[in-house]
């Protein structure tokens, strides 16, 4: 066996153990990205070989959180890709007004900036009070940050310019208070948000959502796992519900491609489920 083959064996053994011991299955993730992240985690834990993580997985239960954190790409922004938020505001929100109550699911919400963006958008459109937002991720460390709604002050310059570009109607700084080098978003914004753990690899659908947002998550999945998640979204949408994906993601060639139509131009990645009239 050469070194490359040994490393492959270590990699496979580690993923098998994570699945066996904790039920997390990374088999459906793009291999190059997950391997790169495991190698980074090995180095940051002060080890040379991937297999040195195995005793931690077996004997240190709290290491699972570190492992999941290491596997998650948590990069996110408020009003990320502002032109998409503008389309949401101008073309989707008017169609959502017909529903007496709105249910919105952010799958893979990371540290929550996307969820607070949605709460702000709904507030400005007069819909927040009759909306219920579910914000989920499989990474508890990210969910804890999301729940607190406290972010570094240095991020606000970018967030503010995104907000303005997205068609924001108020003064962005009215939505948070600054303390030292951090900002805390107003608690009022999260009154209708439920943060909870949900794993797109194995957990079930959430029923009857009017809008599902899953952005920059499916890019890390192989086609089979993308299909599983997309099918879950299809099953979780109410008639005439909407699905919003990330800039580089698509339903083309997926298991649900015939069940949805594009809203606005295809580049906006906003889809509406067919039928239900
Ligand atoms: C790059 S972030 C995207 C954050 C946000 N949606 C955005 O676009 O700004 C990807 C998120 O997907 C989450 N994720 C990855 N695999 C997941 C899974 N199987 N179930 C739920 N969330 C997952 C990660 O923990 C991470 O928080």
Count all strands and give the number.
10
Question: What order do the SSEs take from the amino end to the carboxyl end, as H and E?
Answer: HHHHHEHEHEHEEEEHEEE
Uncertain regions spanning at least 5 consecutive residues: none
**Which ions, cofactors or small ligands are bound in this entry?**
S-adenosylmethionine
CATH topology of the largest domain: Rossmann fold
Question: Can you give a write-up of this model?
Answer:
This protein has helices at residues 3-22, 31-44, 54-59, 63-71, 82-96, 113-124, 140-148, 156-165, 223-236, and strands at 102-107, 131-137, 150-152, 176-179, 182-185, 193-197, 209-214, 237-245, 260-262, 270-273. The chain has 277 residues and is an alpha/beta fold. The protein folds into 2 domains: 3-71, no CATH class; 82-273, Vaccinia Virus protein VP39 (Rossmann fold). A hairpin with a 2-residue loop joins β4 (176-179) and β5. The longest helix is centred in the first third of the chain and has 20 residues, at 3-22. The termini are far apart. Residues 72-76, 80, 108-110, 114, 137-139, 142, 199-201, 215-217, 246 line the site of S-adenosylmethionine.
